[in-house]
Task: structure prediction
Amino acid sequence: MHGSDEGDELNHTPLEHEHRRLGAKLGPFAGWLMPIEYEGALAEHRAVRERVGLFDLTHLGKVDVTGPGALGMLQRVVTNDLSKAAVGEALYNLVLNEGGGVIEDLIVYRLEPERYFVVPNASNAPRVLRMLEETQADDRLHLMYHQDWCFVAVQGPESVHVMSRLFPEAGDLSFMQCAESEYHRRPVIVTRSGYTGEVGFELFTYQDIALDLWRDLAEAMAPFGGMPCGLAARDVLRLEMGYPLYGQDLFESSTALEAGLGWAVAFDKGGFRGREALLRQRDEGPPSRLRGLLMEERRHIPRAHYPVFRGDQLIGEVTSGTFSPTLQKGVALAYLRPGDASDIGSEVGVDIRGRRGRATVVKTPFVDRSPR
Result:
């Protein structure tokens, strides 16, 4: 950890000097100084939707869990059933509190029969690591938090062609599959995953080869009109897909069922934290639901914390909102209550700085894209 230019104690990506060389606008994000944009969020968004983009995501956590006790321990911590993940497969998961509220969402990759790779959000990595350390294990296991690893992502329709130039095995991966590879004789975890809604890949390896890897990927995507992309474009891309972001759309006061993530909860796998609370809520019905809102008029752009009304009744608030370059309209995620007040097709109003903008409750994703 180093001090940033602003004097704050921020973590620094090993690619920071490269980002500055490329003209990136850097800013603090989840305790890290990260690239927010290069050419501009709109151009970078278009590159990923139409061609390919390259992201530095080194701020995310990287935890290896290995040993005969790994599966049993992880099953008690996360919501999905990891026993159903074969070697080379990944599963989206939640970590809950006793009330079923979302502490974290993360992906768990099964790299070997007794090796799992856990990728928590940056702000939650220390907490998740502590939970893993404190959860009872039935057999030996070893935890390794890779602070000396980097994480880059290649996302977009041309990503398979870009990746195949450096990692031939990438072309054989289906969505949510992973493989171990190497680059400059160093191990690399290659995964077909991402949070943009496009076909894409994510790469984990040691920081000392990060710059070479970044430049080789940039060179490989140049013929396709690819460009480096920052976190601003990534936020618009994930919101167009209706993907919730921890800290904005997911938090401890709302449960997995309220967030619409019951598909990532395996009730029948055995005990895990929050299971009993979710079972009760499943029977009673969730008090609120995270829904997609599509604004009617182009000029109305929803933002976080804007109130949502049905008639004169306050029924919720926006958690994430933006202008969708694909749809040329505002889109948002919002918790609406009661849970059945938010049926698909319902008309609601979003208070945008004192003006009421009409919106329709819609099923996400907002755009017709798929990472598969």
